[in-house]
Amino acid sequence: MPTIKQAEIEQALNAWAEHLLTTTVAQAEGKLAIVGLITHGDVLARRLVQKLNERGVEAEYGAIDITLYRDDLSLRGIRPALHSSYLPFSPDDMTLVLVDDVCNTGRTARAAMEVIFEYGRPAKVELHCLADRGGRQLPIQPNYSAFTLNEPEAERVRLRLQEIDGKEDLCY
Fold first, then answer.
1. 111-157: per-residue pLDDT in tens?
2. Which residues contact 147 (CB under 8 A, 6 or more apart)?
3. Distance CA 29, CA 31 (A)
4. Which of 40, 67, 92, 97 sits between 20 and 30 A of 106, alpha carbons compared?
C-alpha cells in the first residue's frame, strides 16, 4: 500500500498556500474564506489559513458539517456522527475555498455547497482537496488538488492527521 508521509503532506500544504496566493487571493479582493469540511478538511483548512497569515494574507476560517446534506445518509446507519458547523461570517460576496481531504465522486462537494448556500450567497466557490482520486459521479471537479491518485474504487484512501489521529500520512 503506497503511503505519502508527513513531510510530503507539509510540502504539499506549502505549495497549496502558494497556489492560493497566486490565484485565489488576488481575485478575492480581501474577501476570502477557507472553509473546511469536518473532520479532516477543517484541519487542513486551519493549516492553510495559518500559512496564508504567515504570508501576510488574512482569510476567514470556517468549518461545515455536511452529514445531514448527504444523499447517502440512509445508507450510513441510523445514528450518523454530527458535528457543529462553524461559520462566524456571512459568505455573501466572498470567495470561499471549500477544503476536503479526498475528492472522489463529487457528492461530498455537492452537499457542502448546499450547506454554504443556506448561510448566504458567495461571489465564488472553489473546491480544493489534498488528494483527488477521480471516480466522479457528478460533474464536479476540484479547482486544486495536491495529489492525484489513480486508485480503483474498491481501494480505500485514508488521510490521517496528527490533530485527529495522532499520526500523519495518506495511505492508498
1. 999 999 999 999 999 999 999 999 999 999 999 999 999 888 878 99
2. 4, 12, 130, 131, 132, 170
3. 6
4. 92
